[in-house]
Amino acid sequence: MSKIYDVIVLGAGPAGLAAGLYAGRSRLSVLIIEKGQDGGQIAITDEIENYPGQVEGDSGPSLIARMTEQAKHFGAERVSDLIKSVELEGDVKKLVGAKGEYLGKTVIVATGAFPKPIGCENEGKFVGKGISFCATCDAAFFEDFEVFVVGGGDSAVEEAMYLTKFARKVTIIHRRDQLRAAKSIQEKAFKNPKIEFMWDTVVERVEGEEMLEAMIVKNVKTGETKRIEADEEDGIFGLFGFIGYNPNSSLFEGILDMEYGYIKTDDNMHTNIEGVYAAGDIRVKSLRQVVTAAADGAIAAMQAEHYLANKE
Ligand code: NAP
């Protein structure tokens, strides 16, 4: 029979690795299952300057490598597998993957969420080189530069307002002539002198040598295209995409309570099923950052520990 772990952690981003570390330190048997590379979104982030204590100029992958090593040091076992189905009710939970079945007394779901790409030509080449999906992470790099934001929902408009604290000018590019964002948020944006709007417009292509220097936008009503170039003095501009996220939660549809595809928890990371916790970007929460993901993972692991101790 398969080993029954005290804790199974699904996902090896900051939330999952912090959960593995805390569970391991509590002398629980813990298995971390990850389908790809460790780190989730920060595995593709060049520079992280807002994680407390992070060494200046140090990269996302090196931060993640240290988190992985730390979890391993405290006894977290690892397996690389893609989980295809789950049975979460009852005292022993079962996760069925492509390579095998895994049993745990508790499960911490830390599968993350990924920003939807803008969907323009050459996008991949400029992610981290002018294109960003995180204003909190990258706004400071665009101090006094011009910045464009794609999207018209709450995130796009709120993040555009945040970006005005850094950028010289922020233009919201929206595919319709009306914002989707809540009226109260819209009103603030319309009053902000640094924000301009480019209506009925989509980004078709981005261009540049190393960094983003130009883009082709298209008016969807007239079909007219226009080339936007960085100011000569600047040489570059920023392009932020906020057209929604894709949470990695399809595995839990109809099983865990969700809101817009994100798993609902209480402040202690409890889901609607006893012994099942969610941590990090997969949760309904207000700030999706490495520091909040790691904190969630720590809380979830300690809650799993309390749950197991009370069962004995
Ligand atoms: P969202 O509400 O789904 O808005 C996405 C925006 O991106 C929409 O304006 C949409 O245009 C546009 N869009 C979608 N696909 C596109 C594409 N392929 N090309 C160009 N534009 C595209 O996403 P969100 O702003 O991330 O918000 C997600 C949820 O979180 C929402 O329910 C929101 O209310 C909530 N939220 C709340 C707050 C808050 O209350 N303060 C803050 C952030 C998020 P269309 O309008 O034309 O569809």
Topology:
Blueprint: E1 4-10, H1 14-25, E2 30-34, H2 60-73, E3 77-80, E4 83-87, E5 93-97, E6 101-109, E7 113-115, H3 123-126, E8 131-132, H4 135-138, E9 146-150, H5 154-163, E10 169-173, H6 183-191, E11 195-198, E12 201-207, E13 214-219, E14 225-229, E15 238-241, E16 245-247, E17 258-259, E18 262-263, E19 276-278, H7 290-311
Parallel strand pairs: 1-2, 1-6, 2-3, 6-19, 8-15, 9-10, 9-15, 10-11
Antiparallel strand pairs: 4-5, 5-6, 7-16, 12-13, 13-14, 17-18
The site of NADP nicotinamide-adenine-dinucleotide phosphate (NAP) has 17 residues, from helix 5.
The largest pleated sheet is described as: 7 strands, mixed
Number of separate helices: 7
Structural class of the helix and strand makeup?
A: alpha/beta
Uncertain parts: none
Identify the CATH homologous superfamily of the largest domain: FAD/NAD(P)-binding domain
The succession of helices and strands, N to C, reads EHEHEEEEEHEHEHEHEEEEEEEEEH
Number of strands: 19
Mean pLDDT: 95
- Described by the principal axes of the CA atoms, the overall outline is elongated
Q: Give the name of the CATH architecture of the largest domain.
A: 3-Layer(bba) Sandwich
Strand content: 25-35%
